[in-house]
Amino acid sequence: VNPELSYSVVQHKSTGRLVVATDLIETIAKKMDFSEDESFEILVTLKGSDLIGTTYTHPLYERNSPVLAGGDYITTESGTG
User: How many degrees, rounded to 5, is the angle at CA 14 between CA 10 and CA 15?
Assistant: First the structure.
């Protein structure tokens, strides 16, 4: 994560809970092909620096991984931030 970005824990019935850059919530919802009346429910919003040192369940592999600090190369220009 970028310690300076804002991240949100969001939830939707098709995805469960995800952590994404707050500025990309709408973009990700569009890529998920949500209908116009559907959106992510925002459960909490945090600074990236608050996430460093926590753990998450990897979305593709059955493992827990630590959240690491990245640099300013992590942006909201693409991906999930």
Answer: 45
CA-based max dimension of the chain: 36
pLDDT, position 78: 62
Phi/psi of residue 58, each to 5°?
Answer: -60, 135
> How far apart are the two ends of the chain, measured CA to CA in Å?
7
Name the one residue in this structure whose structure tokens are 């994404």.
Answer: 20
Which tens digits make up the pLDDT trace of 11-58? 999 989 999 999 999 988 988 888 888 999 999 999 999 999 999 888
Q: How many CA atoms lie within 13 A of 48 on its CB side?
A: 20
